[in-house]
Amino acid sequence: MRKKILVVGILTVFATIYACKKEKKTAPLYNPTYTTVDVPAFAKTYLGDMPHPADNPLTVEGIALGRMLFYEKMISNDKSMSCASCHKQANAFDDPRPFSQGTNGVFGDRNAMALVNMGWDRHFFWDGRRSSLEGQAHDPVTNPIEMANTWTEVVTRLQNSSTYPDLFFKAFGTNTVDSSLTMKAIAQFERTLVSFNSKFDKYHHQGDTTVFTQQEKNGLNIFAGKGMCNNCHLMNTLLTDRDLKNNGLDVNPADAGLMKFTGNANDRGKFKVPTLRNIEVSAPYMHDSRFGTLEDVVNFYSSGVKQSSPNIDEHMPDFGSGLNLTAQEKADLIAFLKTLTDQTFLTNPKFSNPH
């Protein structure tokens, strides 16, 4: 009897050891796939490699997690909103509403910004208060008139989900969810939102002179010449100089813009210069959505700039009585602006909702 018990005991020990070894062999390995964002040669010539923080390199797994989180509604307090609720792909990841509505039913006071080619940006939000995509991903979650949540609650929900701990392990080597890793993943996905495949790119950067109509060519000449749009919306690749400026919207700006962040009176009325890429689908325009159409925007720059606005940017020339574009010149300029639309960006399935 004792021998039988001893044999059973030995077999049990061996079975336990075997099970442990088997478990050890099948334990998941952290093996991220490092990657880069694919951009055309002309963009890389101007911009170089897309910069990113040393502690947040792009990986296939990190981007996939970020895409899931970008469309994840459980990050809002009542689980009704995600980042994509106010940044819609068909609108260049902008909000077609003048102001986005938060979970408590209150509307914000600034237009949601389009999310295009942000990997090369230096300032985020209209007032430039964040200097990285990681930092930018933080604010909407805790904003009381947006998602109205806490990061502690977000982390708890993600940690308790059936899918996210494994995704975090694949992306970052840990099953433990935290706010920093969540923001890093969202930033990784947002860095992939690149747009360089418009009619303008084919004509101006790739030399296909057959794609532009004569009206579009005329509009390009106005953009770079008489209209002086190129002063701030540089045609190199990004269609923005990535700076913050006062473009003369108001004599007494109701929204202080950058000054809210810096406290410097010299920054009053300064806002981020947005990219004009996909501008056709990202209405309404300006930080306060005051212009509903491209015609409104062109009319403003033609004859509506307030030269007495405080800190008006040096690149805004003294129009005197205004540029006074003719009706035909305005139409030509708008025709050109529509060549900046990139349909492949607006419909790319890699950017769509993965849930």
Average pLDDT taken over every residue: 92
Helix content: 25-40%
Strand order of the largest sheet: 1-2
CATH topology of the largest domain: Cytochrome Bc1 Complex, Chain D, domain 2
Radius of gyration: 25 Å
Main sheet record: 2 strands, antiparallel
The low-confidence runs, each spanning 5 or more residues with pLDDT under 50, are 5-11, 20-25
**So, CATH architecture of the largest domain?**
Orthogonal Bundle
Q: How many strands?
A: 2
Number of helices: 14
| Distance between the amino and carboxyl termini | 60 Å
What's the CATH superfamily of the largest domain, by name? Cytochrome c-like domain
**Overall outline:** globular
Q: State the name of the first-level CATH class of the largest domain.
A: Mainly Alpha
Beta percentage is: under 5%
**Structural domains: how many:** 2
